[in-house]
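Ticket #307: bound-state structure for zinc ion.
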Amino acid sequence: MKEDFKVTFWGTRGSYPVPGKDTILFGGNTTCLEVLIGKTTIIIDAGTGIINLGRKIVTDYFAEGKEVPLELTLLFTHLHHDHTQGLPFFTPLYLGQSILHFFGPRNFGEELNSVLERSMAPSNFPIDLFSTNSVKNITTLKENHIILLDSKNKTPKLINKSLEKPEIKDSTIVIKVMNDYSHPANNVFVYRIEYAHKSIVFCTDVEGYLFGNTKLIQFAKDTELLIHDAQYSREQYTGLPAPRQGFGHSTPDMAIEVAQKATVKHLALTHHDPASHDRQLNRNQTRYKKKISNLFYAREELTFLVE
Ligand SMILES: [Zn+2]
Ligand SMILES: [Zn+2]
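RESOLUTION: The complex was predicted; output attached.
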């Protein structure tokens, strides 16, 4: 039986959280995406949006009678603050019944487990990552890895696609990885999640290239939903006194170029600049919808059904 394939935005903001009256509509929490296929949960990034998601997951888990372990897969695009700062407050981390599978890139020659450990170092936080009660499996990913999950089985399996061909059943969830080099100082992973001939691509903290990001266009080809960074408006990107070129983020025009060349079905823009309030984002949404009608600005707690 084909399960629902749903995506929920829990944090759509870039750089730092911005609570307050001007961000009620699109949300003030930093990056976090929930992908739910059947009962299998995949989370991308642990910005402050993961705090509300964690509460919901634990509430549902107890309501369902907690008969099986709470098993979750967490993917990191990269390890900048706005993609990790919610992790210390992610409730499942503290539950003995949780089995958490973390995947993400190597950072400046450092493995994922030590970068995550530092994000909760005792000098900055009262409890260190490995003293929390959950079981943690932390794996540094490479571009030639594929993660296989199942809409029924929540334990991920990692394969090296150069050596092994994945066995795909109707219930298989396939997670592919693309390494992008456009974000300053280090790389960023872009993820493509496929299930039952449908897919989504999550692509944040990337900056566009002249003629479009060719590698990304190939990676996102014909996806149902491309979620793309669009932190800066055209004016913020080029405008004086502080042009943002080279900061590793895109404009809506760059995201649209990728979406059109990759012939994606829907385009969601995310990683909104903390200085952009709801009225501006609404205005920009109306402006860019005229250019490409299947576009929307991601907002917190919006759920998109992939079909
Ligand atoms: Zn970011
Ligand atoms: Zn970043």
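RESOLUTION NOTES: The chain has six helices and 15 strands.
TICKET STATUS: resolved
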